[in-house]
């Protein structure tokens, strides 16, 4: 959840980086009493995210700057649309514009890409989810942008849920069906009934010994669509079925049609391109 504290902290960190001891250009060129009105304009179509960060950026730079007519989070827009109007002391507007743009361009890019993935599976019940492949320090913001684009959030951190991957199983000495079940045995009791347990597999024959450990979900990693269908049938309603690995806009529709319930896509955050937005005066 994008809380006021998270927004305030992210903006404060960004401003400390961008204006550590003031805006030299603005302080020496712009009169203190000058005012300006600017518009946040889309140069290309997309889905908006980052509004709270825009507002907080200008609030911290100069509380007299006003952000008006800002579009809602998750709103779709076309090239040329005005997404917000920023007006007030010119020094504050000009000093805060790059940080505000950086946040909104980055987050709108993630929201836009997420919306494309969501649209590609709209004919199925499958959900699109993000991963932990996020920019260090910006995870909460980027996961917020995924939600703005219509996606779902996977676990936020390593503290939120149990996800046993191939390296965990290897470290536990799980090399066959019997040792895999033994390695996972008792995990449900140790974790407690409220903790989600997901186990990753990369072959169909790994599914039965994992199911014996009663996980919440099974992640089918880098499976072909044929094997995904077989995995879904084998698991049935005994666990949530998730697919991941190499998911693209070209392949996600076919993956969703196999019957998996969740498709996790690292590209949503680590591969999204910043959207082209501009702050135009006048």
Automatic annotation (TrEMBL):
Transmembrane intervals: none
Pfam family membership, one: QRPTase_C
Keyword set, alphabetical order: Glycosyltransferase, Pyridine nucleotide biosynthesis, Transferase
Pathway: Cofactor biosynthesis; NAD(+) biosynthesis; nicotinate D-ribonucleotide from quinolinate: step 1/1
Residues spanning the signal sequence: none
Domain Quinolinate phosphoribosyl transferase N-terminal residue range list: 23-108
EC number(s) given by UniProt: 2.4.2.19
One Gene Ontology biological process: quinolinate catabolic process
Domain Quinolinate phosphoribosyl transferase C-terminal: 110-280
InterPro entries referenced in this protein's UniProt entry, alphabetically: Aldolase_TIM (IPR013785), NadC (IPR004393), NadC/ModD (IPR027277), Nicotinate_pribotase-like_C (IPR036068), Quinolinate_PRibosylTase_N_sf (IPR037128), Quinolinate_PRibosylTrfase_C (IPR002638), Quinolinate_PRibosylTrfase_N (IPR022412)
GO molecular function, one term: nicotinate-nucleotide diphosphorylase (carboxylating) activity
CDD domains per the UniProt record, alphabetical: QPRTase
Gene3D superfamilies tied to this protein: Aldolase class I, Quinolinate phosphoribosyl transferase, N-terminal domain
Similarity remark: Belongs to the NadC/ModD family.
PANTHER family to which the protein is assigned, alphabetical: NICOTINATE-NUCLEOTIDE PYROPHOSPHORYLASE [CARBOXYLATING]
NCBIfam families: nadC
Protein name per the record: Nicotinate-nucleotide pyrophosphorylase [carboxylating]
Record organism: Leucobacter luti
């Amino acid at each position: 959840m994008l809380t006021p504290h998270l927004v305030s902290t992210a903006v404060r960190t960004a401003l400390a980086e961008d204006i550590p001891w003031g805006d030299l250009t603005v302080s020496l060129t712009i009169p203190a009493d000058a005012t300006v009105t600017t518009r946040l304009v889309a140069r290309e179509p997309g889905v908006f995210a980052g509004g709270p960060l825009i507002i907080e950026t200008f609030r911290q730079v100069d509380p007299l700057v006003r952000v008006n007519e800002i579009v809602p989070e998750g709103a779709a827009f076309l090239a040329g649309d005005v997404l917000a109007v920023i007006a007030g002391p010119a020094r504050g507007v000009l000093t805060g514009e790059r940080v505000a743009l950086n946040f909104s361009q980055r987050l709108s890019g993630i929201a836009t890409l997420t919306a494309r993935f969501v649209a590609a599976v709209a004919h199925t019940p499958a959900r699109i989810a993000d991963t932990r492949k996020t920019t260090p320090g910006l995870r909460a913001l980027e996961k917020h942008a995924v939600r703005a684009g219509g996606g779902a959030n996977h676990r936020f951190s390593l503290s939120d849920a149990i996800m046993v991957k191939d390296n965990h199983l290897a470290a536990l000495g799980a090399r066959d069906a019997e040792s895999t079940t033994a390695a996972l045995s008792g995990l449900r009791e140790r974790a407690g009934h409220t903790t989600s347990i997901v186990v990753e597999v990369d072959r169909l024959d790994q599914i039965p010994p994992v199911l014996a450990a009663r996980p919440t979900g099974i992640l089918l990693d880098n499976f072909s669509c044929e094997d995904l269908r077989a995995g879904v049938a084998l698991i049935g309603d005994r666990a949530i079925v998730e697919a991941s690995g190499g998911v693209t806009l070209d392949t996600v529709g076919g993956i969703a049609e196999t019957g998996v319930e969740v498709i996790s896509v690292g590209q949503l955050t680590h591969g999204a391109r910043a959207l082209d937005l501009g702050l135009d005066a006048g």
